[in-house]
Amino acid sequence: MDKRVLFLLAGLSTGAAHARAEEASAQWLVVTAPAFRDELAPLIEHRRAEGLKVVVVDTTNVLTRDQIRKGNAIPLQDHITELCQHTKGPKYLLLAGAVAAADPVTAEQTLVPTLSGTIGRMKEQPGDYGFGLPDKDGVPAVAVGRFPARTVEEVRYMVQKTLNVERDREPGVWRNRLVLLAGNPGGGPLAELVVERATAPRLERLHPSWSVRAIFNSAMSRYYVPGSRVRDAALRSLAEGAIFDVFLGHSAARGMWLEGTNFITDDDWTKLRIPRGQGVLFTCGCFGCQVRGTEGYGLAAMRNPGGPVAVIGASAESWSAPGQLALDGLLQCCSKPPFPSRLADYWLGV
User: Fold this and answer.
1) CA-to-CA distance for 292 and 294, rounded, in angstroms?
2) What's 339's DSSP letter?
3) How are strands ordered across the β-sheet holding 251-252?
4) CB-hemisphere CA count at 13 Å for 96?
5) Whose CA is closest to 312, among 304, 302, 324?
């Protein structure tokens, strides 16, 4: 996977031929915790075979043991800036390692520290956004993703999921499917009507190539599924595979909300099995990719060998307007062909 998200995304490519010329000048930078270097080898070789310029950096070659344990990623950000400043083509960054270690003894071998936010509600909150080297307007120059692996086994799963999806050339209905799950917004019929009217024109922007399966827990919606059935319907749709699984609604770190309670939990994401079509989970809910304290359900999904290949979501608190804008960015990439061949482009669109 060569790119990823607000917090979480992994680096994914569909390998489309039209992107080859651009990729000849592209750089794929991997920052890895020492314990995971060997497990990344198949993905590294795959990226080289695609024609990308691959640069691999071990955290211990840039950061001291004390900096890793205290989460000081500033020297790493400076090093990434130096490596990227002479590259004119696309730049992709994969961070391979967890943010927090359950056992301090393993910290040096398994962690890739993250940065802290500097603006508004993100001040002092963890996030990888700064590694994207944003310009004065906040536009990232680098597409950033992370494998939030805590163990060698977990990074092996993430590498294998990535390679499986990218190497799958067989036809399948999942390839152009978008699953859209929307929780009840709260506020009664008027709020439901507002959400329905805001969503409909956005779906109309999708190119006809896309097939949408929508499930809304709103009585005002044409896609309404009542609360007694919505959980089973949602899990069944997720298990059938899709390029994007999109959740619009409230959430906490432990799961997606439906009428004030979790209806798809972190435990569900740990147990979900997608036989084919392990696409990208895109969630607008709060704390879906939280990395400190109670970890977000997005991390559980990423670590599940049978779950989605990548996750795009918020590492902290989010609101309706940012979620709507994020969705607009994603759907814009799906509005006309040729559709982007790399997940990095969707992340940058978001």
Assistant:
1) 6
2) P
3) 251-252, 255-258, 261-265
4) 33
5) 302
**Same fold for the domain at 17-167 and the one at 173-349?**
yes
Q: Which CATH code for domain 173-349?
A: 3.40.50.1460
| Separation CA 140–CA 245 (nearest Å) | 24
- Superfamily for domain range 17-167: Gingipain r; domain 1 (3.40.50.10390)
- Domain ranges, ordered by start, for the chain: 17-167, 173-349
In a 13 Å sphere around the CA of 68, the CA atoms on its Cβ side amount to 24
User: Which pair of structure tokens corresponds to residue 90?
Assistant: 């696309």
Q: Quote the CA–CA distance of 217 and 181 in Å, as a whole number.
A: 8
In the numeric block, the tokens 């939990």 are attached to 265
Tokens coding 38: 């060997």
Distance CA 104, CA 90 (A): 36
Q: What is the gyration radius of the CA atoms in the chain, in angstroms? A: 19
Task: Report yes or no on whether pTM surpasses 0.85.
Answer: yes
Q: Are 155 and 149 in contact (CB under 8 A)?
A: yes
Identify whether the C-beta of residue 184 lies closer than 8 Å to the C-beta of residue 218: yes
Distance CA 177, CA 169 (A): 16
Q: Which of 286, 18, 19, 14 is nearest to 168 (CA)?
A: 14
Question: For the segment 299-328, what is each residue's pLDDT rounded down to a tens digit?
Answer: 999 999 999 999 999 988 888 888 889 999
Tens of pLDDT, residue by residue over 48-106, are 999 999 999 999 999 999 999 999 999 999 999 999 988 889 999 999 999 988 788 88
Compute how many other C-beta atoms are within 10 angstroms of the C-beta atom of residue 257.
Answer: 21
